[in-house]
Amino acid sequence: MSTPRAVAPVNVRLIRPSDSVSEITRLLHRAYAPQVAMGLKPLAGRQDDGVTADRAANSECYLALLNEGGRERIVGVILFEEHEKATFPAFFLRPDVCHFAQFGVDPDMQGRGIGRALLETVERRAREKRATELALSMAEPDKELFDFYLKRGYRFVEHWQWPYTNYRSCILSKALA
Questions:
Q1: pLDDT (tens digit per residue) in 162-176
Q2: Is the pTM of this model over 0.85?
Q3: Distant-in-sequence, close-in-space partners of 9: CB < 8 Å, separation ≥ 6
Q4: Which of 19, 45, 82, 133 would disulfide-bridge 32, Cβ 3.0–4.6 Å?
């Protein structure tokens, strides 16, 4: 059994105008590379800087930052309550449900609690909005990712097909205490 590698404290905060959209896009491409290698076409794994900026502007975009010698390096990202043009799954539209998307952690930094910090941030925000459920969409073929969410208390709700992916998605949700 491996033990988590130590990491300096990570700061999670909302994106700022001074944050590098290109750095976020590159991080997403690295984080979603395993799905791309499976032949999947997740938006976050192929979007350009314009799409990254648009998605950040149409959501609460949280970044996980690591201080390295006085410079903050973006090591994770998550979108809370993204608004987009595509039709949402019915479950996302329920008044008691919040959702998150575009969740990614730098592959070199995974296993150090960064993802947990980002998930805790959106769970807290969902509770603040009085949601009883926090939902997400994930690529059905990615069984490892499915197991990741099941271990964190998420459950399968329904299947969904986004117009910009080449795979069926699973809508998962977690009851919030």
A1: 888 999 999 999 999
A2: yes
A3: 67
A4: 45
